[in-house]
Specification:
signal, Chitobiase, domain 2, 18 helices, single chain, 8-stranded parallel barrel, about 550 residues, TIM Barrel, binds ligand TNX, EC 3.2.1.52
């Protein structure tokens, strides 16, 4: 279907060699440039993975590649440190002179061997992922044949993200790592971890142990929250700081940055349940429970200096755990009812010379941004942070209520990440099938995801430079089991990866569908539950 892909290349099969996979360029996201070559490379247990003796980064990439090959094809090629290139070798080489960026790579596949080359470890890793996909496109075991081709690849956007909500339903470290693994295999590089919300506080903060002891547990509404004798059954989960560090390290090894989100001033009910003095104390006199149900709740932080002291202490620990440049502070859906009802808050608004509660939220965000700046970190928030006043120049906006916020912010000189709900939310249902799990309406299909265009049409070329990229968000209200998380994610993650990685001109729904067949087989082989709805629904 594509003139520049290697699909058409096939030499007469000589009995001993395995056949070339039907779709020989089954790579997702689709590489920027593919030029077909002559012949094929035979990849089997005898293949050597060659790395320079002193190149630790290339060695890590080669080891990771060998383990992934072992998982799918049942053999692990050996690592030949300091060995020579040859027709039986795949060379992984860092070349600091390469002109392209740190995430770019070239992949040269021919009869006389394979060379994966990049300027930096990230690019080399992505080159190996592409090679792994080519080497597993037929879904088979044992030796494989890979069509000769030359790939020159680099991402379109620097922010290629996924958000996972572990506040509504907790996910184990292993489950989180499994998601991170799949992100890496799709060349995504930013994992946004939604760690706090009304229904749960999931990150250990040493200074405030009740955040997780109390805020990490809730009682589910209805029968699900009671045991056989009708006694409440706590439903709990949080990550220790050691576990957080482990996940951050695991992600970094896969060239993924973890961006934590600590919600404020709203979506704070679990924190206020743990420490009621953080709330609007002249209105709320009794500690709320950690929220047992969904929706936009009214508990939000107060604006006393003591509450800012708490938030700053929390952020200080968060900054210590997460090396990311960006710290997400939420900012969405902060219902202002309690601020409006509070004489203390109203007095504060007056004393600051502010107009109203919206202006107070803007002031709140500015104060937190200043604190993060002391740590050399950039405040990131949902598009509500644009409301009520001027955002600090460095603040970055994540646009979820469509792309309006992205347009406004980019025009105003802020960097933006687009994550519009109707297009890139993974909690929407995917079909009208009887076995479709519950979720938000209307239906959001794989094709809807695939056809999303990242840069809003309203932006001119200069403003568009502020668009860092896009991410999909997986809110978990409807997703209690990990299997439901997985079927919401896969294969829509494939569509997302192409939208944020591949050049616009390479976006092609028919071609994508063909390549997806091999990917669905890879999911099965890796024991990853993917939704088959893409095949069941007529588009
Ligand atoms: C809105 S999107 C929220 C989340 C919900 C989601 C449900 C956003 C910034 N806030 O709290 O989980 O809708 O789709």
């Amino acid at each position: 279907t594509s003139s520049s892909s290697a699909d058409a290349t096939s030499t007469a099969a000589s009995g001993a060699e395995p056949a070339i996979a039907a779709h020989a360029s089954a790579v997702i996201p689709r590489p920027a440039q593919v030029v077909a070559g002559e012949g094929r490379f035979v990849f089997g247990p005898q293949t050597r993975l060659v790395v320079a003796a002193d190149d630790a980064a290339a060695r890590r990439v080669a080891e990771d590649f060998a383990a992934r090959v072992q998982q799918l094809r049942g053999f692990a090629p050996s690592i030949d440190s300091g060995g020579k290139a040859g027709a039986d070798a795949i060379v992984f080489a860092l070349d600091p002179k390469s002109a392209a960026g740190d995430e770019a790579y070239t992949l040269d596949i021919g009869r006389d061997g394979v060379r994966v080359q990049a300027r930096a470890a990230a690019g080399l890793f992505y080159g190996a992922v592409t090679l792994w996909q080519l080497a597993t496109a037929d879904g088979g075991k044992g030796a494989a044949s890979i069509a000769a081709q030359r790939i020159d690849d680099a991402p379109r956007f620097v922010w290629r993200g996924l958000m996972l909500d572990v506040a509504r339903h907790f996910r184990s470290v292993d489950e989180v790592k499994s998601v991170i693994d799949q992100m890496a295999l799709h060349k995504l590089n930013t994992f946004h971890w939604h760690l706090t919300d009304d229904q749960g506080w999931r990150v250990e903060i040493k200074k405030y142990p009740r955040l997780t002891e109390v805020g990490g547990c809730r009682i589910l509404a209805g029968a699900a929250g009671r045991d056989a004798e009708g006694k409440p059954k706590p439903y709990c989960g949080y990550y220790t700081q050691e576990q957080i560090r482990d996940v951050v390290r695991y992600a970094a090894e896969r060239h993924i940055t973890v961006v934590p989100e600590i919600e404020m001033p709203g979506h704070a009910q679990s924190a206020i349940a743990a420490y009621p003095e953080l709330g609007v104390t002249d209105v709320v006199r009794k500690a709320p429970p950690v929220s047992p149900d969904w929706g936009v709740h009214t508990y939000l932080y107060g604006v006393d200096d003591s509450t800012f002291g708490f938030l700053e202490n929390v952020l200080d620990e968060v900054v210590g755990l997460f090396p990311s440049r960006y710290i997400h502070i939420g900012g969405d859906e902060a219902a202002k009812d309690q601020w409006i009802a509070s004489p203390n808050v109203q007095a504060k608004i007056k004393s600051l010379g502010l107009k109203d509660e919206m202006a107070l939220q803007s002031w709140f965000v500015g104060r937190i941004a200043g604190h993060l700046q002391k740590h050399d970190r950039i405040l990131l928030g949902w598009d509500e942070i644009l409301e009520g006043g001027k955002l600090p120049a460095s603040a970055t906006v994540m646009s979820w209520r469509g792309t309006k916020g992205a347009v406004e912010a980019a025009r105003d000189g802020h960097d933006v990440v687009v994550a519009p709900d109707r297009q890139l939310y993974l909690d929407y249902v995917q079909s009208d099938r009887d076995d479709e799990p519950s979720g938000r309406f209307p239906i959001s299909t794989l094709r809807d995801f695939y056809q999303f265009s990242v840069v809003p049409a309203e932006l001119d070329a200069a403003q568009s430079k502020h668009v860092l990229g896009a991410q999909a968000n997986l809110w978990a209200e409807h997703r209690r089991s990990f299997e439901r998380i997985q079927t919401a994610l896969y294969p829509r993650l494939d569509a997302l990866s192409e939208v944020v990685w591949s050049p616009q001109a390479r976006i092609d729904w028919n071609d994508f569908q063909q390549r997806l067949a091999a990917q669905m087989a890879r999911y099965r082989a890796q024991d990853v539950k993917a939704s088959d709805v893409a095949y069941a629904v007529k588009f």
